[in-house]
Amino acid sequence: MIIREFLAWTQNASAEGRAEATAALARTYLYGDLGDDAAWEAKTALLALLDDPSPLVRRALAETCAASARTPRPLVVALSCDVPEVARPVLARSPVLTDADLVDAAALGDEATRAVIAARHHLSHAVAGALAEIGETDTLVVLAANPTAKITAGRMLRMIERRGDEAALREAFLARADLPPEVRHALGIAVARALTDFVTDRGWLGAERCDRMSREAGERVALEACEGFGAAAVTRLVTHLRTTRQLTAGLILRAVLSGRTDFALAALADLSGQDHAAVGRAMRAPRLFADLHARAGLPDALLPPMQAALSARQELARGAVPVRGTGLSRRIIACAIDACGDPSDPEMHPVITLLNRYEAEAARDEAREIARAIAAQALARETARREAEAADAAWRAALESQCRTAFAPAADEPILVAVADTAEAPAAAPLNPVGAILDALPEQILAWYRPEELDPEIQAATDRVLDGLGDSLLDHFRSSHGRAAPQPDEAPVEKPVSIAA
To answer: Helix, strand, or coil here: 184?
Structure first.
């Protein structure tokens, strides 16, 4: 009954009306409490709507059914194969679609459809791998920026191999928290290659020098990529470098000179075929290290500086001497250069040249760190000075405001101005600061400085005592202090009263 009535109504309704009715019917089927017969009829009606000629109706059906796990699978599969504007909501959110459905949709869809699939929540390894192989730059950027997408290290390396020259892809990868060390190294190599091409195209440096700088930058990135990872990740990075022919003797020497013994141990174990425990013992014993060096296939000229560098590193560790960071150590490089013997030996020329280059790099790194520290200290002092000046200015402003408030007359206090009998405007009276301060003091404070009046009873008793004294005694007291007794016809001289008093 529902099917007949609904389909009969859709024959004459507009596309907008059919789309609204379709969304209401889909919500009723998915979230309503329908009986078995009513649910079957509603499901049949929704499947019939797949043949609606208007994309608005099918789009409304896709948006309503996209996020529900109760949507019939035939309906979801049909919608995912529809035109892109209808299929994208389902491809982006539907939990009914399988990995095979998504891979097929990515293979047959356009680039925008692949980008929608790449942004799905918790994308599986299979779908991510397919997108890594067939997706273009936009799809790869969306895939790399999806933190819930499960991408293996091999697929990440494949994406960098295909589109590593795109800065947007490199930035998206660097924002991920699960980036393995071999992928970090590949990103560093991609950046170095992009910079090399830019400098070469500009003609600023020669191709040979740019290649050497790019190779040295790759070595530094390889060692820095191991920071924070365990032995398994370092071993995986070493395997990747050996497979791509980037594991060189110079890189192993740099690792020893930089104190990255974990990388050197993994590299020597990979090249010699020995386990990590045996390699670790050999690196602590010069005699055993010579045999390990030969098994690894390293050049003979590299053995003396390697042994000297390992011995110097052990001495520094035993003496608890602080070593600067994990970069190249000038102290250890100096020991390695001294162990090279006669500088005129032709076999040692490449090794000495390499060590001298490492020494110059270490000196520049050390100078950069010192310059950064000095700049940071200067910035801290300048910030402290500005803060002190600001605090002092604020204190002075607050003090001036308080003084103006204390010495200003009240709103209801009359201001008396003496006007002279002249036609000219009277000049302002000079401010008496002492009087202003006394006027501003509270009455309780002023009372402390006023002379205390004697009690009336004490004053009366004092008068009676003085009246009882004889005149001769009083005259004697006055004469002893140089005062003459007043004559009866003379009135006592009164002292002039000071107006200020």
So the answer is: helix
